[in-house]
């Protein structure tokens, strides 16, 4: 039991060292929302739950007084075709994956780069330690990799990441002078 | 905690994006430290209870039991994640039958439309639940009426009942006091986000312990 908890400590604490990268991603996301952009969430398998979760965070905030922002989970978890159908140049594509190994998600993010969306990837290290095929898509704007190969541990870090991400987007939206 | 105390720079009339970025990066590091502490607290308080719960869950699975998971909003997505974890655990692990009740949108919307939202989990459990099964309800507040009804119905039918809550447990803590929930784990935090993060760890560690108890490691 204590081993199970101990295994989680370092990879999740490592998020602290990604704080600057998370803050930069949130600043860029806030600027997109400010321009009228929408959030498109991508994730398959266990990460489909995360795509659904981040959407409800943005659309129905848990903190009273925070405004609803437009977000949707792409049908089927996301693909190049659904990014092209739903995505516009002001939008944000946010992808979740425990190892970045899904070819359909890599294609989807490549399509998002081509269409001018802001691209954000929250990934686990995977086999190459760098977020696999999804992490290797050229031109991604923000890539945050949790240093663990355990998909469960990666998922726990990711839940914290997108909670923080939602909160920080609102901090930036409350400071219009930094959104231009 | 107010926005002002978390982000003093914002309220001092900041015009400098770099300073605000530094401010939010610091607050992010604080949140990461906070969830680390909360996990340790849960481990200290509940290690024995988690082991006992996992052992009873493994026993139900070994006898052919199924897991029914449910919650609202963000917790409905946790229900999806729990079901996915059990059914499709990846190589070397044993797949186990688990269903997320919120994903049965036809039944959920039929019940919500025809009767009321408080029965959306209780009715499917009344229809399908057997004494060998497990009901697993998630709520951050501990007060969700439909989750409480679901657990109460499951308990009446002899299912093993497991609940995850936050704050000080709310109505779920009272139900557990009355013996209506077999295993209740409360994440002692007032932040919905930190509660959900600690609950994610709890249900994933429970799954690891169930796998281990069933001989798959």
UniProtKB/TrEMBL annotation, chain B:
PROSITE patterns in the cross-refs: SIS
Molecular functions (GO terms): carbohydrate derivative binding
InterPro entries on file: GmhA/DiaA, SIS_dom, SIS_dom_sf, SIS_GmhA/DiaA_subfam
Transmembrane portions of the chain: none
Biological processes annotated in GO: carbohydrate derivative metabolic process
Domain annotation SIS: ranges: 57-216
Pfam families: SIS_2
Protein name stated in the entry: SIS domain-containing protein
């Amino acid at each position: 039991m204590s081993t199970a908890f101990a295994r989680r400590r370092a990879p999740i604490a490592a998020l602290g060292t990604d704080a600057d990268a998370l803050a930069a991603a949130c600043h860029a996301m806030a600027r997109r929302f400010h321009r009228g952009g929408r959030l498109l969430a991508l994730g398959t398998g266990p990460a489909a739950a995360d795509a659904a979760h981040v959407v409800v965070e943005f659309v129905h905030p848990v903190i009273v007084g925070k405004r609803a922002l437009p977000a949707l989970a792409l049908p089927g978890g996301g693909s190049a075709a659904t990014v092209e159908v739903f995505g516009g140049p002001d939008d944000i594509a946010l992808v979740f994956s425990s190892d970045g190994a899904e070819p359909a998600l890599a294609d989807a993010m490549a399509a998002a780069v081509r269409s001018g969306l802001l691209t954000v990837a929250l990934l686990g290290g995977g086999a190459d330690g760098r977020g696999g095929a999804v992490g290797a898509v050229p031109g991604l704007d923000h890539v945050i990799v949790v240093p663990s190969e355990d998909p469960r541990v990666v998922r726990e870090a990711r839940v914290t990441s997108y909670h923080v991400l939602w909160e920080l987007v609102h901090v930036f939206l409350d400071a219009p002078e930094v959104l231009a | 905690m107010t926005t002002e105390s978390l982000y003093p720079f914002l309220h001092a009339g900041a015009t400098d994006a770099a300073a605000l970025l530094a401010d939010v990066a610091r607050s992010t590091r604080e949140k990461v430290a906070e969830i680390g502490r909360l996990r340790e607290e849960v481990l200290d308080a509940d290690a024995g209870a988690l082991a006992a719960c996992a052992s009873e869950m493994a026993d139900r699975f070994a006898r052919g039991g199924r897991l029914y998971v449910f919650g609202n909003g963000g917790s409905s997505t946790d229900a999806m994640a729990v079901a996915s974890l059990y059914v499709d655990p990846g190589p070397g692990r044993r797949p186990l039958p688990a269903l997320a009740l919120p994903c049965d949108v036809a039944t959920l919307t039929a019940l919500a439309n025809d009767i009321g939202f408080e029965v959306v989990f209780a009715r499917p459990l009344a229809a399908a639940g057997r004494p060998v099964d497990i009901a697993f309800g998630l709520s951050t507040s501990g007060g969700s009426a439909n989750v409480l009804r679901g657990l109460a119905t499951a308990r009446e039918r002899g299912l093993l009942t497991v609940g995850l809550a936050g704050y000080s447990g709310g109505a779920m803590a009272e139900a557990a006091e009355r013996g209506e929930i077999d295993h209740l784990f409360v994440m002692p935090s007032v932040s919905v986000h930190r509660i959900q993060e600690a609950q994610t760890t709890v249900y994933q560690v429970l799954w690891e312990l169930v796998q281990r108890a069933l001989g798959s490691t």
